[in-house]
Amino acid sequence: MPTALIADDEPLMLNRLRKTLQAAWPELTIIAAARNGVEAVALAQEYKPDIAFLDIQMPGKTGLEVAAELGNSLNLVFVTAYDEFAIKAFESGAVDYILKPVEVARLTQTITRIKQRLQTQATPPPDISSMLADLLNRTQNQDAPKKLKWLRASLGNATKLINIDDVLFFQSDTKYTRIVMHKSEALVRTPLKELVDGLDEEAFWQIHRGTIVNAAAVDKAVREGPEVLIIHFKNHSETVRVSRQYFHLFKQ
């Protein structure tokens, strides 16, 4: 019976991955779950799973760093919301990747490939050391983190692909982030505070602790009192309020 380690620093994502794996691969035993990269390495060395599903962006050690440390001792699958990492990892054909939010249909394709590798027990997992070294070198030497260009949002059984330029504003909604566009809106499980780092700060302005607006979509800022400043958008009726500490963004 195949065994697996799963690792993600977001509890909701970790639980979703566990449930999706159980639904798509009932024979798989998840023997360990890690909340950060350091824990993932320790658990992998202790339990020696056949497969590791690693979130790329984790505290302590990234998924790439965990993979580099574990070497080719197990089969690797990267779970990520960032295409630049995922595509580069997948190009080698040695590892697979899944984009967040994890869906059964996409996961099933990955499982099929892993099963084929596991069928011949005498064949060790592919050596991906050179590919990981290249990825780590590129990510560690970047002058600045790459900015988000696309977002994926779940709408029932469908996944909506959102161009970041089409977004009017982001608004925090408890454990989710509300994404508002001209004629539609969506929810993503990524908290607003995590999205901030991926947004171009010159294009997307934080105007409230829970609101970020696309500056290009703003029509006007209207004073409705000494402490009240309201943002109006082009061709959109909804408005948002600016916190006092961000009033300076809209001064001449």
The first-to-last residue Cα distance is: 67 Å
Morphology call = elongated
Helices and strands, in order, run as EHEHEHEHEHHEEEEEHEEEEE
Put simply, the count of helices is 7
Largest sheet: 5 strands, parallel
Given the helix and strand composition, which structural class is it? alpha/beta
The percent of residues in helical segments reads: 25-40%
Strand composition percent = 25-35%
Instruction: Please give the number of β-strands.
Output: 15
Low-confidence blocks of residues: none
**Major sheet strand order:** 2-1-3-4-5
Q: Gyration radius, to the nearest Å?
A: 21 Å
Average pLDDT works out at 84
Please explain how this structure is put together.
This protein is of the alpha/beta class. The protein is built from 7 helices and 15 strands. The chain has helices spanning 11-24, 37-47, 63-70, 83-91, 104-119, 129-140, 192-195, and strands at residues 3-7, 29-34, 51-55, 75-80, 96-99, 150-155, 158-163, 169-173, 176-180, 185-188, 204-208, 211-214, 218-225, 228-233, 236-242. It has a 5-stranded parallel beta sheet with strand order 2-1-3-4-5, sandwiched between helices. Strands 10-9-8-12-11 form a 5-stranded antiparallel beta sheet, with no helix packed on it. A 3-stranded antiparallel beta sheet has the order 13-14-15, with no helix packed on it. A hairpin with a 2-residue loop joins strand 13 (218-225) and strand 14. Helix 1 packs across helix 5 and helix 3 packs antiparallel against helix 6 (129-140). The longest helix has 16 residues, at 104-119. The radius of gyration is 21 Å and the shape is elongated. It starts with a strand and ends in a 10-residue tail after the last strand. The mean pLDDT is 84.
